[in-house]
Specification:
With about 375 residues, this protein is α/β, with parallel strands linked by helices. The chain contains 14 helices and 17 strands.
Length: about 375
């Protein structure tokens, strides 16, 4: 596919001049270029604006951006860089290249890179961009099942991000409903590599995944600024299935100062929490911890008391450092102490009223520098205020 028109200096200058324009109004205008329609230009502006927030390494002259759906489905630069840590070898294969963000970072320390993508326009865009970025790869426009059928080569690392929507664009969560069906191609993947990395939806159930797929040595739950974005499986070709090691769960909250938290999946089942009413400090785990279901192991590892079996808040007399989440110094207050119009950041957990209902009932406003937490401990309902 020829992208020379879109990357010409005239069109690139026009894109730069209109980077902050109202794109809906711009779409109503006629293209100033006889051989490129305005819709194509606007799409490049959208791509550039997405790159500013999501993958800044692509803010270079000569980069082409794909349609919105491909931009949305692509990993962010920060999650791709995290997944790439400690990966190196001779040969790397990405079976679901897409817009190539993951492939770009994961393959950096490999001598040979092979990218598979069934969409001909998308693989052409990636090829153009990698040429601009001076990165080499074998770009293959083929269905991954066809590639696996004919491929005879072994790779040090194989990566794939199965499609999670059906033809009606409905989200799918079972492994057999993904495209490709991981359960069908699992043996084939293990025959061509000893290390498989799979990106899945953050909504998929971890226990279910571990029960269905063999040889998962690690699951990474990757959040960015406390929003869980990806669940990543590391599958390694263990020759002995009789002596499999328990799966390590890694909880990561990128673009924060919080440390990683790791535990063995089986240890959560045997871990026990002690319970207490709120003490001097309140601990709110980040969402990667909550997604992992590490409700008792986090209590045990940090020596914290849990407020209630159904309240995933923790407490201590003295402050514990390096907790993967928010730590607040708190005091208990009575509802009668709340004054009309006071500003708080409201949190409601295991409490009958939602934040909006609390705000209305007590005539409070959003904002300010203090948290107001409505929750429940083993002693009953509590209202806590951060100091």
């Amino acid at each position: 596919m020829d992208f020379s028109k879109l990357i010409s200096s005239d069109i690139q200058n026009y894109i730069n001049q209109n980077i902050n324009s109202d794109l809906n109004k711009l779409l109503l205008k006629k293209s100033p270029f006889y051989d490129v329609v305005i819709q194509e230009i606007v799409q490049q502006i959208k791509g550039r604006k997405t790159a500013e927030k999501k993958f800044s390494f692509l803010l270079k002259e000569g980069i082409i951006f794909p349609p919105n759906l491909n931009l949305e489905q692509a990993s962010s630069q920060s999650t791709a860089e995290y997944k790439a840590q400690n990966l190196k070898g001779k040969s790397f294969l990405d079976l679901t290249c897409g817009f190539g963000i993951d492939a770009y970072f994961l393959s950096k320390n490999f001598d040979e890179v092979t990218l598979i993508e069934q969409n001909p326009e998308l693989i052409s865009i990636v090829e153009n961009n990698w040429k601009t970025l001076e990165r080499k790869a074998n770009f293959i426009n083929v269905n991954l099942e066809e590639f696996l059928e004919s491929n005879q080569q072994k790779f040090d690392v194989v990566y794939l991000d199965p499609a999670r929507r059906d033809q009606q664009n409905k989200k799918k969560f079972l492994l057999e409903d993904l495209s490709p069906n991981l359960l069908e191609i699992e043996k084939k993947l293990m025959s061509i590599s000893d290390k498989i990395i799979v990106k899945l939806s953050p909504l998929i159930d971890i226990s279910y995944v571990i029960s269905e797929l063999k040889n998962i040595t690690e699951i990474q739950i990757i959040a960015v600024r406390n929003e869980v974005k990806e669940l990543v499986l590391i599958i390694e070709n263990n020759q002995s299935t009789d002596n499999q090691q328990p799966t390590t769960i890694k909880c990561i909250n990128l673009e924060s100062n919080e440390p990683e938290f790791s535990f063995n999946f089986n240890d959560e089942k045997s871990a026990k929490s002690e319970f207490s009413e709120s003490l001097n400090f309140l601990y709110i785990p980040n969402n990667s911890i909550l997604k992992a279901g590490a409700f008792n192991i986090i209590s045990e590892k940090f020596g914290l008391k849990k407020l209630h079996p159904n309240t995933h808040f923790y407490t201590s007399e003295n402050k514990i450092e390096n907790f993967p989440g928010r730590v607040l110094e708190i005091e208990k207050i009575d509802a009668k102490d709340l004054k009309k119009g006071e500003k708080y950041n409201l949190i409601s957990k295991n409490y009958p009223l939602k934040p909006e209902e609390i705000k209305k009932k007590y005539k409070l406003n959003d904002g300010g520098s203090h948290y107001l937490i409505f929750t429940q401990s083993v002693k009953g309902k509590e209202i806590l205020r951060s100091l």
